[in-house]
Predict the structure.
Amino acid sequence: MDHKNAPGFRVIDCMLHAHDATLLLLACLVCAIGIYASFAVGRHAARASGKVRIHWGIVNIVASGCTAWATHFIVLLAFQPHMPAAFEPVLTAVSLACAIVGIGAGVTVSIAGPRRSRQFVAGLIIGTGVAALHYIGQSAYLVQGTVSWDLALVLSSIAVSLPLFGVAMLAIASRDRRIRQFAAPLMLFAIALLHFCGMAAMTLQYDPNVAFPSDAVLPRTVTPVVAGVSLALIMLAVLGWRFDLAAKARIRQDRRRLRDLADVALEGLLITQSNVIVTSNSSIERLSGFAQDDLAGRDVSALLPHIDLAGLPEKEERETNLVGATGQSIPVRVLRSEVPLGHKLQTVIAVRDQRERLRTEAKMRALAFNDSLTGLPNRASFYELLTLQTALPADADKPFAVIMVDLDRFKQVNDTFGHPTGDNVLVQIAARLRALVNGENVVARLGGDEFAVMQHGAHAEAACALCVRIVEACNSETFVVDGQAIHLGASVGFALYPEDGGVPAELLRNADLALYAAKADGKGTYRRYESLLNDKNQERQALEAGLRRALADGQLDVHYQPLVDAKTGRMASAEALVRWRHPERGLISPAEFIEIAEETGLIVPLGNWVLRTACLEAATWPAHIGVAVNLSPVQFRDKALASNVGSALQEAGLAPQRLELEITEGVLLMDEARTLHTLSHLRAMHVRISMDDFGTGYSSLSYIRKFPFDKLKIDRSFVRNIPHDAESVAIVRAIITMSACLGLSTTMEGVETAEQFGFAVSEGCSAIQGYFVSRPVPAAQLRAVLVSDASGASMEGDSVGRSRIDDRCDERQTAH
């Protein structure tokens, strides 16, 4: 085949030799102006709304169609057929209509949705309209001769140009500005391809016999029309240019306003478009270290490289790191929001500095999981460590010990020397415990004066050895605070994993039970958990529950132990002692439940009940007989104590002088000022105060001087060995002599033999109490004895005198 007849050669030859170059350049200029005008008007329509949007949309479609039509007909006018030519008016008009309808239909499909497939189809529709414009327009081109068509070249031009229109529409819809720049050149190329291929597809043969139709329009007639359309497009382009300038000015103004508003915000704000930073506020500049000019135009991923902002849901915060100007990584939280600015959506990214929050959270975690005084792990942290240790796989299980440490006499340190001194002691204890364990083991402070140790890889022997070292470190070594030597002790209990428990709660509970057993054994020692302790604990819990029921169900009684005057041998008063008649276990000794009552707080309602009951009972006795009631240290801390005593006296109608309140030295170890105030208040009510168990405390003499006592009760531990033990005799004589000098009466308690009774009488003791005189008896029996002794017969300090109370009470019990 002759290469000159090849389609490609014919198209190029048609472009170079068959057209007027000047008119071709004019056609290109008009096409470019028209495309710009169409795009500018289209952007203005997109920025508008309502009817204005529709009107400018129609103008955009008409301008696009006119652009294609004017370009086509200028190029047709540039064509040089070398024979007379004219235009058929109807087809010429139809070609313009095809362009407008095709472009309008394509634009309608395009704006219906953003999907890429829809945009490509819209391009195909526009391309079909433009192709119809070209070939119908070329059909309207008449020459004085005949025209034959190369159908293959026509179809090829359509097949190639239509996808180009589709790709051009995809470029227009792209968010990437660089891709959008290719839209106009692609459309221009597609239009040129259709025209030149179409012109090359025509073969013209001059025939002088051919005449033009009567309605044919000569080129000189079409030229002004085309020129008018071109001029309109130029004017529209100028209008669109002004629209663009105005829109850009508004966008700049909006951005300035947005930045001014953003500068007020404490959070960093980035205003972006297509992942490129447009502007930012001063907060983000301070946070990142970049100046505003350095940030503008920078890709967002340069600052936030670890997060996909496109995939980040709107208004949902995410944590990431911001890379600053010096390369530092700053923890931040980001939130993305779309904000309309002009006719476009701008992406605003809020960036919140998290450094201070993370520092605060770290401090809070430290406070939550570490003891602020000693720096040791606290209870929550220790429990978490136990949880992790017991959660290890079975093949990694290693035995370990949980050791509980509780300081002995620590409350006395706080009460005597003050809490700052107590805190200093706790810090020293923590240091000693740290020194006793290696780095693998854990020391924690669970609260108050209670510490715990987790000893890894420990069997029973190793755990016992560590417990011994802990006891020795706390018991044998003196604590020195501000030059003051303080002696403490420690009780220790431990449980082994997995033998004594498989979960943290069980291990802690069992170690605590062992600690409680060590305290019960006399303190200053250690015990290992054993199942018997759990049985005792359950029994203790059962006693607590039973005691609560006993208070509610009236299972409690008050017994009374008489005290006799040492000089006359007559009964002077009686001490009220609570008894619990359990429905299943029978009579339960106070030694079994008073400690539980004190630990659980039940001692307060129990003590108040005993006080009211004793006052009511004593009101039925002869007026010279008094009643003594013991006060627990827990009761004494009750602010309502004085008012409770007053209410009990008033309710019973008992003279205050007949009530004696017995307190132990433990009461005096509390806040001295408050204790003195309470005792003074009670003395002002004319209630008598006695110190029970005198001689067992290391500072009793100072208490006698400070506090308003009426009586001292000599502890039974001194009376037990009288008169055979010389030291006990000397101590008791000293107490009696000292009390006489201070104007205090004395009671010797625990008197069980005639010799002890005689010693008390001979040494000048004021009153005597003990089994030799009488055991504690129920109220009814004591009342009966008091009635039978109303004659005033004396009870001498011998076995006969003793039997007058104790034996008569036994007789009454037998009679009942």
